[in-house]
Each structure stands twice: as structure tokens, then as C-alpha cells.
Amino acid sequence: MPPQTASVNAILLDAGGVMLFPAPELVLPPLRSAGVDPGPADLERAHYWAMANGDEPGRQPPDRNWWFEYLRDYVTACGVPAADVDAVAGDIAGLTDGFSWTHVGPGVADALRGIAALGVPLGIVSNSTGEVEQVLRQASVTDGQIFVAEHRGGGQLATLVAQAWDLPAIEQRYEEFLAEFASPSARDPLTSLTELVHAWRRFPSADPGLPARLLPGRWSGARAASLFAARHARWSPDAVMQWIGLNKAAS
Predict the structure, then answer these.
(1) What are 22-45's pLDDT values in tens digits?
(2) Which residues contact 196 (CB under 8 A, 6 or more apart)?
(3) Which class does domain 23-100 fall in?
């Protein structure tokens, strides 16, 4: 008998690292300061090399330091000298803290439309906060369906949440962040941006990113996220230019 061909009922795609990549405008300044100037295709190849290298047998499984380890492989693939890899990776880590996977890969929109034209349900694995969905929609990638996980039964979710996370303590840290960075002015943009990123860096490992219905009323995490995005956008351009100037002066 001829082999049976399995029918495809649906297609699920992972957005991050397949359709979306780290923003070139954030990774290029430190790379150029290190003497390399990769083009878009080089950045894409470096990404895939770094991801594949992270899956090599014998490598430690991903943990909270995975981003820095990824960046070490990434800048190595871009041609950064071995002696400068840690420094350049650290600089990029600071500039890309938060959501920075905003570059839609070439051909992504056309490829998704081609898949959708097959008539097979298409889903995109996104993050729970909707950031990936927002970027894809900004790029006019709207043909597929984007799914989120759903709790289907068992005990009360509020009880589970209270057992798993100390939300009042997390909210207190958000309130402290809001107070510390309330002013939009920055006398020293590079120092201010570094302090902002360093302060924000502690939240992804502490805040589980729960839906609003499971959070206390007037949850300060949303306000803190908006404040971080606003301050990061306001201070980043001057901070990058200041950083480049300092490197030129030191060389």
C-alpha cells in the first residue's frame, strides 16, 4: 500500500525569532563602535546562528541569563573580536531591555498571506501581553489567528494566584519605580537610561504578567510599564550618541 499522507488541520507559528527580530536601530550602534557594520541579512544570519548555538548539546538550558548568552553568540556571529564580545553584548543588553523584538523579517507578511491562502487555519504563538500581536498588526500581518492560553477548570484562580505570587510586594516595587523615575528630565541621559534599565530589569522575573481580572484594582504595573516605555524612548537617542562619543574619546 502507498504511504498515507497525513492531513494538516492547522499551522502554528512562533513569532519571536521567526517573524520578529531584535530592532536593528538598537543593536547596530554598539556593533559599529566595535568596528563591524553588518547589513540586514548579516543580522538575520547572526540571529539564527545564535539561536542554533544555544541549542547545541552540552549547553546549559535557558535561564534568566539567556538573553546575554544569546547576545554573546549574536555579536560573535556579526564579527565582533573575541576580546570585545562581552562588552558589546552587555551594551546591547542595556539598550534592548524590555520589548525590543520589533523588526519584522523580510518576506514575513507575504509568506503568511501565502500560508493563509492555503485555507488552513493559521495561528501565531504570541506573548501574553500582546506586544508581538501589536507589532505584527503594525506590519499589516493580520491574516492569521493569534491565540492565548485559557484556564479551563479546577480551583479558584484567585486562590492559586495568592499562593503563587506576592502581588502586594510586587506592586510596592512598581510604586517605588514610578516615584524614582517620575521626572522626564535627565541631566545625564546615559546614566539615567542605565539606571532606568537596571531598575526595570528586576520586574520580568518577579511579575507573572497576569490578566487584569486577576490583579488588584488600579494595578501600578501597567502605569510603570508605560512610564518605562516613555522614559526609554525619550532618553535612548541622546544616551546612544553619548555612549558613542565616549567610546570615540577613549579610542
Answers:
(1) 888 888 999 999 999 999 889 988
(2) 181, 228, 231, 232, 235
(3) mainly alpha
